[in-house]
């Protein structure tokens, strides 16, 4: 017969397990959702960026780990009362119950504080991870902004450089053209000098012409004096004629006629000579006037041409000076632009150095985040609770490990292998191990909890069932090293035994050492 106390203990335990089952189902659903999203991101079916997906998975992992820790803390009192009630039902030893209760109280008081510390550490780690991710995002955005600015700066530099190259080519062409012009200038200057020399020679010729004119004037004055002499001679001749007329009376007519004839001949000859001289002088005067006019015209034309050449040369000299000044200004501008380009290139090298340092810091932060994630995963408390579903009757051979716990209610850290039925300790520490079996037939059975360390097997507890609907439960605390194994074996051969679906095997890390 079932006592009310037994029913109450089983009912409370079932309530705790149902709540834990609901919580774990929700947790498993969230884990599946996060896993599916991560898998879809890997398969390129999710359009989120790496930072968003990494932040999402980190937050989901932290939240799931906190939810894994919270149920153990929330239901620790109820689980402790349930385990103690079960122990009171299965064992009649009051001293053993008192010792277990004292042990659980100590463990609960000790580990509750540690769990609170772990919660605080987990919250601090979550805050650190969030702050680190925030810094990473800020640095990433900053690096992207600097890269964009650097690309804009490089494009502007390239455009400026191309403009400078074009301007430089134009200036080089201008310099070449100016050089050609300057090369032609000495020839033009030589031509101008030649023309000036010819003009100066023309001026010398004009001076010579003036001398000739002066000589001609002197000759003319001499001729005038001779003409005056001739006029005087004619007058003297007239006077002589008068004297002759007076003398006619005394001389003979023949002599007078002879003398008159000679005098007339002489006068005609003198008149012809005078006409010839006058004609020669007139022709010479006309030639001299024409030469003077031609010389004046040549002098005026040479003077005008000299003035135009002088203005042209002065203009070309001023233009050349202006061009040289502009070239010097342009050269100084090009030198300044080259210095600015060098400074910009130095700034670009500094930006590249900053980008390399930022990439190294980003890599270091990624490693720190990975280490924090690994540490947070390592700080997860390993625990497993395996249950037997309603099944047909089972048979076991002596010394075989039970693998009939096929319903996984909890397996944090994947420490329990359902195929082998072995729980392997992930780290050194104190572990709480519990086994509860309820058989539905009248059969005396005995199952033993074994611990294997380095190949050595040791018994750590046993259970007995010998009646219909008999319940047997054992709870023990084991000190396990890393990779130590805990499992259940049958002491004898058992044929066609049927276990109730509430039978379970449980292992939980209480304290890490």
From TrEMBL:
C1q domain location: 374-513
Coiled-coil annotated spans: 253-287, 324-368
SUPFAM superfamilies per the UniProt record, alphabetical: TNF-like
Signal peptide start-end: none
Keyword Coiled coil attributed: yes
Coiled coil in keyword set: yes
InterPro entries for this protein: C1q_dom, Tumour_necrosis_fac-like_dom
Family annotation (Pfam families): C1q
Keywords tagged on the record: Coiled coil
Name of the protein this chain belongs to: Uncharacterized protein LOC106072585 isoform X2
Organism: Biomphalaria glabrata
Organism ancestry: Eukaryota, Metazoa, Spiralia, Lophotrochozoa, Mollusca
Gene expressing this chain: LOC106072585
């Amino acid at each position: 017969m079932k006592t009310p106390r037994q029913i109450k203990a089983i009912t409370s335990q079932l309530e705790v397990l149902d709540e834990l089952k609901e919580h774990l189902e929700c947790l498993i659903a969230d884990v599946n959702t996060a896993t599916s999203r991560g898998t879809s991101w890997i398969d390129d079916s999710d359009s989120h960026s790496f930072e968003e997906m990494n932040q999402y998975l980190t937050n989901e992992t932290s939240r799931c780990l906190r939810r894994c820790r919270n149920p153990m803390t929330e239901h620790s009192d109820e689980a402790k009362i349930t385990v103690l009630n079960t122990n009171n039902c299965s064992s009649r030893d009051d001293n053993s119950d008192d010792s277990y209760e004292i042990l659980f109280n100590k463990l609960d008081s000790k580990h509750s504080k540690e769990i609170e510390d772990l919660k605080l550490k987990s919250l601090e780690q979550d805050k650190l991870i969030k702050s680190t991710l925030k810094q990473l995002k800020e640095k990433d955005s900053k690096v992207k902004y600097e890269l964009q600015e650097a690309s804009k700066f490089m494009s502007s530099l390239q455009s400026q450089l191309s403009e400078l190259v074009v301007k430089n080519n134009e200036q080089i062409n201008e310099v070449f053209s100016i050089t050609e012009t300057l090369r032609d200038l000495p020839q033009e200057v030589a031509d101008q000098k030649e023309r000036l020399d010819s003009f100066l020679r023309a001026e010398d010729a004009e001076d010579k012409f003036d001398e000739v004119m002066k000589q001609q004037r002197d000759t003319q004055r001499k001729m005038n004096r001779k003409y005056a002499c001739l006029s005087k001679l004619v007058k003297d001749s007239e006077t002589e004629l008068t004297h002759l007329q007076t003398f006619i009376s005394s001389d003979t007519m023949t002599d007078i006629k002879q003398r008159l004839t000679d005098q007339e001949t002489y006068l005609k000859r003198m008149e012809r000579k005078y006409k010839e001289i006058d004609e020669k002088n007139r022709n010479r005067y006309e030639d001299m006037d024409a030469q003077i006019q031609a010389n004046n015209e040549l002098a005026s034309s040479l003077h005008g041409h000299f003035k135009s050449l002088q203005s042209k040369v002065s203009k070309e000299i001023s233009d050349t000076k202006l061009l040289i000044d502009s070239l010097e200004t342009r050269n100084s501008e090009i030198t300044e632009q080259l210095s600015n380009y060098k400074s910009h290139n130095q700034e670009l090298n500094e930006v590249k150095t900053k980008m390399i340092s930022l990439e190294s810091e980003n890599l270091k932060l990624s490693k720190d985040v990975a280490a924090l994630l690994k540490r947070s995963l390592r700080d997860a408390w390993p625990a497993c609770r395996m249950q037997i579903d309603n099944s047909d009757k089972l048979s076991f051979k002596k010394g075989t490990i039970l693998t009939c716990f096929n319903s996984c209610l909890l397996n944090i850290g994947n420490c329990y292998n359902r195929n082998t039925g072995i729980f392997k300790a992930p780290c050194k520490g104190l572990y709480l191990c519990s086994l509860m079996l309820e058989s539905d037939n009248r059969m005396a059975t005995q199952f033993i909890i074994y611990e294997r360390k380095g190949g050595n097997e040791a018994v750590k507890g046993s259970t007995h069932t010998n009646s219909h609907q008999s319940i047997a439960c054992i709870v023990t605390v084991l000190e396990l090293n890393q990779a130590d194994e805990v499992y259940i074996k049958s002491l004898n051969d058992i044929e066609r035994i049927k276990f109730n679906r509430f039978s379970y095997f449980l292992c939980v890390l209480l304290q890490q050492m």
